[in-house]
């Protein structure tokens, strides 16, 4: 078996006096697209932040690429951050920077020695990989549509050629056509670059059309973990309610 990219073991997180995570465990293997779902307040975004070292859990362990995050110093954690890309729910582009400058930011931070002409080439390549036209590079984020802003944020997440992508509600706020186009772009990137992806989503079309596997959080626990069609048929009240808006597809 290939070594896991992510390992979460008995994770516990306390927020506002309650346990949001109370023994969460799962693993991600290379090349998977895994969707993390759950109701409001189940700590999906918090979990993503813990996976990249932005927040420490109150118990349990998080390992990325075999490294226990709790055991890493600042320099080692910074080096590890070159191996993953993060896309926030709103894209989180710097509004005062042009798109190309946004995409170049991780390169400037982690590879300051990279010559400017080569950096520009990398930026243009990442924009193309994310499905943006060349003229998008010189636009401000405010000049882009919602779908294009998500693609620009994806290009920035890809800047350092990561092995792992963590995406928080990547199709949130997009119209159905733009959302499906984004999903198709992500699928091509995963298949061609062998990326591993963990995404949070409420988009049922993304679940059915994109995810290889889904993990369901409920009351602090993982209550289901498997292929979408299998999880959708799990006899749990919350899961049944979640999938009620869509007939279970034959897989």
What does this structure look like?
The chain is 35% helix and 24% strand. It is of the alpha/beta class. The chain has a domain at 6-91 and 162-243: P-loop containing nucleotide triphosphate hydrolases (Rossmann fold). The strands form 2 sheets. It has a 6-stranded mixed β-sheet with strand order 6-7-8-3-9-10, sandwiched between helices. A hairpin with a 2-residue loop joins strand 1 and strand 2 (18-28). The longest helix is centred in the C-terminal third of the chain and has 18 residues, at 176-193. The chain is globular. Mean pLDDT is 90; it is low at 247-251.
Which CATH C-level class of the domain at 6-91 and 162-243 is it? Alpha Beta
Low-pLDDT stretches are: 247-251
What is the CA-CA span between the terminal residues? 25 Å
Radius of gyration: 18 Å
Question: How many individual helices?
Answer: 9
Q: Class by helix and strand content?
A: alpha/beta
CATH architecture of the domain at 6-91 and 162-243: 3-Layer(aba) Sandwich
Estimate the global geometry from the Cα principal axes: globular
Within CATH, the superfamily of the domain at 6-91 and 162-243 carries the name: P-loop containing nucleotide triphosphate hydrolases
Which bin fits the share of residues in helices? 25-40%
Query: Main sheet?
Result: 6 strands, mixed
The averaged pLDDT comes out at 90
| CATH topology term of the domain at 6-91 and 162-243 | Rossmann fold
For the biggest β-sheet, the strand order reads 6-7-8-3-9-10
């Amino acid at each position: 078996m290939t070594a896991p990219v992510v390992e979460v073991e008995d994770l516990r997180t306390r927020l506002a006096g309650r346990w949001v995570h109370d023994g969460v465990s799962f693993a991600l293997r290379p090349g998977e697209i895994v969707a993390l779902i759950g109701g409001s307040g189940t700590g999906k975004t918090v979990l993503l932040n813990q996976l990249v070292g932005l927040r420490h859990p109150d118990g349990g362990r998080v390992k990325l690429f075999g490294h226990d995050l709790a055991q890493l110093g600042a320099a080692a954690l910074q080096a590890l951050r070159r191996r993953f890309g993060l896309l926030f729910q709103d894209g989180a582009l710097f509004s005062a920077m042009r798109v190309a400058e946004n995409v170049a930011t991780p390169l400037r931070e982690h590879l300051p020695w990279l010559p400017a002409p080569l950096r520009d080439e990398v930026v243009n390549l990442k924009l193309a990989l994310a499905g943006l036209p060349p003229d998008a590079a010189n636009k401000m984020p405010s000049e882009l549509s919602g779908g294009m802003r998500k693609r620009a944020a994806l290009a920035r997440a890809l800047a350092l050629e990561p092995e792992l992508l963590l995406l928080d509600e990547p199709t949130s706020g997009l119209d159905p056509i733009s959302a499906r186009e984004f999903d198709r772009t992500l699928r091509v990137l995963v298949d061609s670059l062998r990326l591993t992806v963990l995404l949070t989503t409420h988009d049922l079309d993304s679940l059915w059309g994109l995810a290889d596997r889904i993990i369901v959080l409920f009351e602090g626990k993982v209550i289901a973990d498997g292929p979408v069609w299998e999880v959708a048929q799990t006899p749990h009240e919350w899961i049944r309610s979640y999938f009620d808006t869509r007939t279970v597809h034959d897989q």
